Amino acid sequence: MADSARDRILGRIRAVTGSKDGENPGLRISQPPLLIRPRIPSELLPRFVEKLELGGGSISQVAEHAGIPAEIGRFLDAEKFPATLRAAPALRNISWGDGLEVSYGSSDGGDLVSVTPAFCAIAETGSLLLVSGEDSPTTLNFLPDVHIVIVESDQLLAHPEDAWAKLRELGQVPRTVNVITGPSKTADIEQTLQIGAHGPRKLHVILVHPE
Amino acid sequence: MQSQSHRFKQNVSVALEDVSLQKALSRVQEGFVDKRAAVVSTLPEFEQLREQGREIRNHVLDHLDFYLRRFENRVQALGGQVHWAENAEQARDIVRDICRRVEAKTVIKGKSMISEEIALNEALELDGLDVVESDLGEYILQLAQEPPSHIIAPAIHKTRAQISELFYNAHQKLGYTKKLDTVPDLVNEAREVLRSRYLEADVGITGANFLVAETGSNIIVTNEGNGDLSCTLPRVHIVTASIDKVVPTLDDASALLRLLARSATGQEITSYTTFSSGPKRAGDADGPDEYHVVLLDNGRTEMLAGAFRDMLRCIRCGACMNHCPVYGAIGGHSHRWGYPGPIGSVLTPNFLGLEEAGDLANACTLNGHCASVCPVKIPLPDLLREHRRRQFERKLQPLPARLALAAWAGIARRPWIYQPLMATGIGMLRLLSRGRGKFKSLPMLGAWTRTRDLPAPQSRTFQTLWKKQRGKR
Amino acid sequence: MSKARIGLFVTCLVDLYRPSVAFASIKLLEDAGYRVEVPQSQTCCGQPAFNNGDFGSTCEIARQVIDAFADFDYVVGASGSCIGTIKMHYPELFEDDPEWLAKARDLSARAFELTSFLTDIAGIDSVESGFGGELTYHDSCSGLRELGIKQQPRKLLGSIEGVSIREMQHSETCCGFGGTFCVKFPEISTRLASDKVDNICNSKAQVLIGGDLGCLLNIGGRLQRLDKPVRVFHVAEVLADMADGSAIGEEET
Prior knowledge:
- The structure holds 3 protein chains of 3 kinds.
- Chain B is of the alpha/beta class.
- Chain B is built from 23 helices and 12 strands.
- By secondary structure, chain C is of the alpha/beta class.
- Chain C folds into 2 domains: 5-121; 133-239, Rossmann fold.
- Chain C has 13 helices and 8 strands.
- Chain C has helices at residues 12-17, 19-31, 47-51, 55-68, 80-93, 98-110, 114-121, 141-147, 151-158, 181-184, 186-202, 213-225, 235-239, and strands at 5-9, 35-37, 74-77, 111-113, 133-138, 163-165, 207-210, 231-234.
- In chain C, helix 12 (213-225) links the parallel strand 7 and strand 8.
- Chain C is globular.
- The chains are: A alpha/beta, B alpha/beta, C alpha/beta.
């Protein structure tokens, strides 16, 4: 039954598109045409910071990986959140030290703070691109109240198209790709903006930026 | 959803008198129109992007079968399943059968216009399922048992006080006994109530802003993160999408997403853009065990073949309704079926027939504001006029209107009759006005004079005066 | 060199309701150095039939207009709506009729709304008029969106010494006229006209100017029903210094 619905739908479409078979649409996938990309009038990093903050996110910078735990501690202390983290297993190689209580794995909704790595960051829109995988659970991106994302400065790309090129190098697109720009928000009640609808109330980026 | 499109005129009167609706509609200007204008003004390439968006969507329609087959092929390669539905009933059956097979009890839903179009909630509830809308606006409407009145802000017509009352009545049994009156409190309560619903849901159903043929992904954009949780937490993820949602590549999707957020909410990008491709992979820490895509036709192949093909470019941003003066006056409920505003006035007669929904195509001044902001340049006024052409050909307009039009056209085609007739008519009208310059009322023209004075003719017809003056020249 | 010839498209509403707009248009075009004639075989552009779905009658009326204006260098009309129909929609009507399509395209290329002809073709950038006061301008939808008319009337009006323009909010929003829409959906139409009246009154201008008589009759009628002291003129009347008589809907003097 489903098969015949498929054949009938595709048949009706082909009856219309059939005459245009001259060009090969597959080429658009194997050799995508260059599309318009908005010009970025500044350096990538200031642009990224500007747009991230416009979307409601915040950022702090550290010079090396060793500085990450202390920076997270400072941020959580300033925001009055407990120093308890649920971290993506991909971040196991960080030595967290004594100040933070860190556990690894996906979230069941009981975690206040998560920390995850980014696949890359996009300057055009101030976005973070996160991918799912064995070591990077998607639930960490949505269930905790505070989401902290670690970005390396060489992961900063200009446009989403640059991110897709990098993603294609993986061979197969991961199950979930999240492009995240700021915390969760809603304006569904009287068009009044409210932060923290279903996802994180805070999105904080820690940029590892060697001097 | 029960259509009430044929009761459009009665609905209009109710809407214009509805104080809280009018208050809510007044927020569309600030909330959507001004924000869109501001964000567009900072992107010099916007007009080029619109033209490119039109081209991408047209290219897809020219090769729709290729891209759908490619999409299907990719989804299957990733371990997902694609189901094809020719109409709403088939689509409902497919979703219901999946829910039955996996012995689902609770379904959590992201916002999906296709779900509204096929009346999915009602079908699943009839099957004993607990269906929960997770988009805050949709959740409010589910409690109110009302259809959406806007495709981006479905509960735009609801006031805070009304929402407070709805929450109070629905959440008391869950232990929330306080009546809330601030927006943050209301949002927080919904967050808490819905969080447990996500975690217990067996099936998550979302729509798709786009389907990507290159990768077999479906894309949803949200600000709340609700659809994204609905894709991730339940053990089964079902995507309901119409066949026109497919785009060739990730790059094409990005090109259209740049247009979508700006046109919809005046944002450069929404908080979340989520790409889901197949079920969770071996070793993945989370994600659904099953991934299904239901591809719905429901009249779209017919549109593809005919005069309404341009409508299939639509990316459902809602800019047309935000800029529509008629929508601004009466909102989206007067349509009472799925799609409100200008896109609804084009789509609804296609879905339900002109007999049922003919009024919608006429309730438009053809001011063209909608088309001027459409991110993919759909000529909405031309499509509405095409509906009117079909109404005229099938004699569906009211008899008095048809007779008046025929009489007017009959003389307008004959200048030698038209000019003396008009000269006489205008002369009489001028006499009747007795130099007062206007009429407070006129028989046959009550539709005008009930609320407006009718200016009187200034003099004799221009053609009469010109003939006289030319004689003197 | 002989003067270029212009055929004046009078428009049905100007013919019936406000001949002074046509006389003003003729004066402006003659002052700009053109010879103006008024073909007798014109009635209407056919828009009422077109927008009510009667494409057959529209085609017949369109052929009549195409023939009536076949010999002119330009066709000019004081209405963005009627010229929009001629310029943008006539060619669509004859898509399947090569002979008439060619004629319709030819007419389309020669057809201009008055203020856009004066500024864009005749190169006029100022006029002399004794009219004075604070004006506000309503952008009629067809002129604005089909023909891109926005700055042209403002440029000409702004050149008049005693005139200042006070822009109203939402000057580009429809007034609710919409041809037969205003009597088919009178409640919605009135609501849009009322919103327009509010914006006009908030601008504190004493005079409303527009380029399309349909909108002006609608807005003027609503202004007067609500007893607002705003006077209403067509842009041609003000530019040609022929706005010394009664405004639209005013008692005769």
